[in-house]
Design a protein that fits this description.
With about 290 residues, this protein is mainly beta. The protein has no helices and 23 strands. It is a single-pass type I membrane protein.
């Protein structure tokens, strides 16, 4: 038993001490890891493509859904080398939040204080970045409606950032100091960061990252280069499928289902056409 800590508690309820001992005897299958989430409880951090209380079920991840209660997150490499994003970058994101707080995107540099983040905080969207001499934070004019699709397009040129979302008026901010470039040597984290489960992940002190995201993230584009979800994920835990028609593979003849918010389109292979790629095209000269 640890000695009683110094200080006085004013109030409390259900206070316990998280301990790795709750994971003794727990085996999370398929590369999953047990994480002590409460004083007497745990969750399995399931690798991509696995789910269930013990990561025992395999499934095909098609349209990602993130859940803050099980510390969901994914990471992906930047579409191009960081030298292409030093002075200018533009993100386009299509997402549907079901909770008012959460991390959409985050990346940082391991050798400096440079970072960028796009988060929801109290229903407002915030874009923050630091070129190395001070953090700039831009907040949306209005809160976002939960359980609806939103289109975000944020950009940064040097120290200036612009945040337009949906049909709201764009908001602006200017970073401190004279530095105008951001170098992010780390991956692009989506939906959360592994800080809680991986002590080696040290988050920049200027980034107000409090909660993982809950909801769907459907599209991410950086400087007109798409990050394919989930094909470009290099790592992640506890990501499920969204309730979306593409999960049921509606496109026949090896067609590819492309989510369009709540709807979809089928990209048909050569020789087929139609909404679900069911019509065989007439051959030339037939």
């Amino acid at each position: 038993m640890r000695p009683w800590p110094m200080g006085w508690a004013l109030s409390g309820a259900d206070v316990g001490e998280c301990s790795a001992s709750v994971c003794e005897g727990v085996t999370c299958a398929n590369g999953g890891t047990c994480f002590a989430s409460h004083a007497d409880g745990y969750i399995c951090l399931c690798a991509l493509g696995y789910r269930g209380p013990l990561c025992q079920e395999s499934f095909q991840l098609v349209v990602p859904y993130f859940n803050a209660s099980v510390l969901s997150y994914a990471s992906a490499p930047w579409p191009r080398s960081s030298r292409h994003n030093l002075s200018w970058m533009e993100f386009e994101v299509t997402f549907r939040p079901t909770a008012p707080d959460g991390i959409l995107l985050y990346s940082q540099d391991s050798a400096s204080r440079d970072f960028l983040s796009i988060i929801l905080l109290g229903g407002y969207l915030e874009f923050s970045f630091d070129c190395g001499s001070g953090t700039a934070t831009i907040r949306s004019e209005e809160t976002l409606t939960m359980n609806e699709w939103h289109e975000l397009r944020v950009s940064r040129t040097g120290r200036e950032g612009i945040l337009p979302v949906d049909n709201q008026m764009p908001t602006h901010s200017l970073g401190e100091g004279a530095f105008t470039q951001i170098r992010c040597s780390g991956p692009l984290y989506i939906g959360g960061v592994p800080e809680h489960t991986n002590p080696r992940t040290k988050i920049n002190a200027g980034a107000a990252l409090l909660h993982h995201f809950t909801g769907s993230i459907q599209k991410i584009t950086l400087n007109e280069r798409s990050i394919r979800l989930p094909q470009d994920f290099s790592d992640g835990v506890n990501i499920e499928n969204s309730l979306h028609p593409c999960v049921d593979s509606p496109c026949a003849n090896r067609g590819t289902c492309r989510p369009k918010q709540a709807l979809y389109e089928c990209d048909c292979p050569l020789g087929y056409t139609g909404k679900h790629c069911l019509q065989e095209m007439a051959r030339m000269g037939a």
